[in-house]
Amino acid sequence: MLKTIIRERRSIKKFNGKPVSLSDVTAVLDDAAWAPNHGNREPWRFVVAGEKGLEAIRETLKECTIPKWEMLSEEELEKKTAGFKLPGAFVFVIVPEDARQKERLEDFSAASAFIQNAQLLAWEKGIGTCWKTPAWLDAPKFRQALNVKPGERILALLQFGYCDEVPKAKERTPIEEKITYFG
Ligand SMILES: Cc1cc2nc3c(=O)[nH]c(=O)nc-3n(C[C@H](O)[C@H](O)[C@H](O)COP(=O)(O)O)c2cc1C
To answer: Could you tell me the sign of the dihedral formed by the alpha carbons of 134, 155, 10, 84, in that order?
Structure first.
């Protein structure tokens, strides 16, 4: 039931290393593409990294010039990226950055709807996900490695994988506290 999937899906941050089949990932993305999007612009494309890709990402990060990463020693970088081997696949969600503010906002919103669809669809298949926005997504070297063009933005790193334990939910505020009635 949709309501149950929405309520029970959790962001998975501790994966167990079991590989995720790329055909499952593709199937999830294919269904997620039914997200609403204005003008049917379908403002998204993806770079998918499986096991080999994850290793390449770690190597690329060593070259990145985001100051926070630049300051990391080899050892620190190793520690920070050790977990990269554990999610089964990384999906980078790339959106166009329209020069017009309204279209840009619509496109980012549509891609966000896409991402939530993907998280719910994956959950339904027993695959955990986490939507991540590390600073290095914007690092020029990293963008270059993924062949992200000027006028595009990496909106999210969506990690896919299996977990042994589902984390406890962070409770939500009762919705009545978020609603004011007009009229
Ligand atoms: C736009 C966005 C960016 C996020 N970025 C990160 C991130 O960089 N690192 C992380 O651990 N979680 C990230 N998350 C996941 C949230 O931490 C997570 O959704 C939140 O803790 C609620 O947990 P739940 O999804 O299990 O309900 C992000 C979520 C969203 C929607």
So the answer is: negative
C-alpha 109/C-alpha 173 separation (Å) is: 23
Using DSSP's 3-state secondary structure scheme, residue 161 falls into strand
Q: How much is the pTM?
A: 0.93
Q: Coil, strand, or helix at residue 32?
A: helix
Spatial distance between the Cα atoms of 148 and 64, rounded to a whole number of angstroms: 15
Q: Which atom of ligand 1 approaches the CA of 119 most closely? A: 25
Going from the N-terminus, what domains does the chain have, and what CATH number goes with each? Answer: 7-160 (3.40.109.10)
Q: Which residues are near ligand 1 (CB < 6 Å)?
A: 10-11, 13, 130-134, 170
Chain centroid to CA 49: how far? 12
pLDDT by residue (tens digit) across 44-89?
A: 999 999 878 888 888 888 777 666 655 667 787 777 777 776 788 9
